[in-house]
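Risk mitigation, structural track. In case the binding assays with acetyl coenzyme *A fail to produce interpretable data, a predicted complex structure has been prepared as a fallback.
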Amino acid sequence: MKGLQLLATGGALPGRVVTNEDLRRQVDTSDEWITTRTGICQRYYCTENEDAATLAITAARQALTRSGLAANDIACCVVATLSSPTATPSIACRVQAALGLPEDRPAFDVNAACSGFIYAAAAAHGLLSTLGGRYALVIGCEALSRMVDPTDRTTCVLFGDGAGAAVFELAENAPFAVTLGARGSEAIRAGGPAACDTAPITMDGRAVFRFAVEAMPRCLQAVLDRSQKTLSDLDWVVCHQANSRIIDHCVKSLHAEPSKFYKNISRHGNTSAASIPIALHEMAESDLLRPGQTLACIGFGGGLTWGGILLTY
Ligand code: ACO
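Fallback model:
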């Protein structure tokens, strides 16, 4: 089986920075509570003219430019989001139009909450393998600030907005493995509104935390088993950034090297489907990613859902 090689990335952060201090003036919370319980110091919120689609288009355009490819080279466009401003057209169709991607190729959105980018990358791998074509554009984008109740301290401190984009090549000699799963019977533990609804995101934080610390190491181990690799073969593990303590639990339970686990939650909060591609973009931009490196991306989220994927750079 061919694997996915990450060729180029793009990113977009909205214009408003919201610090813990800003939130302290809004709800009964403190910088100390938020940083010690979550590791979050600030997050970005969309301004009036920004939404998940505008961020996706900016990130996608940057990734395509950095890849050096033409729009016509992109065989599919898959977007992971739970906060599309419209149910239809999908954000993927809006990206297709904005970037002038060819019309005879698939473009669609995937909603698997915070696991969305893994699901989207897996879908792109499947499409390239079955429909043909060499390059896929995969995006994770969110405007969660539009979906939280600003008076609910249990959720409003956690979430942020942003987008990350990746151009993948279906590569001959790249190792590949993927694991995906869902447990709809526990949907109540983390839920959100429909795009057109006004009900805010709700969550049983403690239950999601317990689920996450079990699911993350399990997903990573499944990816390693399926690719017949060990942790020492990986250069990076890029986890969904929901809570710094969840990543620390994962490191501990696998007896792993903490420096292999990229963290940027302090600056972004939980950006759901956008968190992994934003992390990949930051890593590429700061030269942490080097050609030939092997990465595992691991996510969990509402649904409940989870997933892991092995990639090369
Ligand atoms: N500021 C101050 N106090 C707070 C705040 C806040 N922002 N939020 C909650 N508290 C209080 C609670 O009311 C509680 O008070 P009590 O003991 O008097 O009842 C106390 O702090 C402890 O609350 P817990 O919920 O037990 O705190 P915990 O240590 O579990 O941290 C958190 C909460 C950060 C939400 C954690 O459980 C977590 O990260 N869970 C995972 C969330 C997640 O990953 N979500 C992603 C999926 S969601 C989706 O996909 C839509």
